Amino acid sequence: MGILTCSDTRSEAEDTAGAALKDLIAARGWEVVAYTICPDEESCIAEALIEMADAINADVVLTCGGTGFSPRDITPEVTERVAGRRAPGIAEHIRAQSLAVTPRAMLSRGTAGVRGTTLIVNLPGSEKAARESFGFIADQLEHAVEMMAGGGH
How far apart, in Å, do the first and last CA atoms of the chain sit? Predict the structure, then answer.
């Protein structure tokens, strides 16, 4: 799995959401094959997603951050451009489950999509919300990877 934190204000030491995702992934026995932090810049985000999908061949890339209403929050737009194939049910499920936790979940613009055989999923940038969102989708990720590799439903 790859992790891409999208933030103008996070360094590796301050990236608690990315660190939490690393721990959650390891707890499932999965491997983090790439971890990057990009500022909220289209070129950096796009290049990191493309590298993780095309060069590193990550099965899944989780982004955290850049999904809100701030003018610099562009992660969903870059994800959709890079991914090419949308996977709307994943983001819809995250939002639906998150609404049971906080009404502010309706303000998340996160999306999900497929680039080749890599699933890209946008998660919120706060550690709490990233943990919760990962928990909402983690049980379905292995099946998604199998299907992208040509496996049956």
Answer: 22
Average pLDDT for the chain: 96
Q: What is the pTM of this model?
A: 0.96
For domain 2-145, give the CATH superfamily: MoaB/Mog-like domain (3.40.980.10)
Residue type, 102: T
- In DSSP terms, 118 is beta-bridged to 115
In the chain, what are the domain boundaries? 2-145
| Helices 88-99 and 127-148, axial angle in degrees (round to 10) | 150
Handedness of CA 40, 134, 117, 1 (dihedral sign): positive
CA dist., res. 84 & res. 98, Å (int): 26
Band of residue 153 on the pLDDT scale cut at 50, 70, 90: low
Of 65, 64, 47, give the one whose Cα is nearest residue 115: 47
Strand stretches in 2-153, DSSP E: 2-6, 34-38, 60-64, 85-86, 112-115, 118-123
Residue 136 pLDDT exceeds 90: yes
pLDDT of residue 141: 98
What is the identity of the amino acid at 124? Answer: P
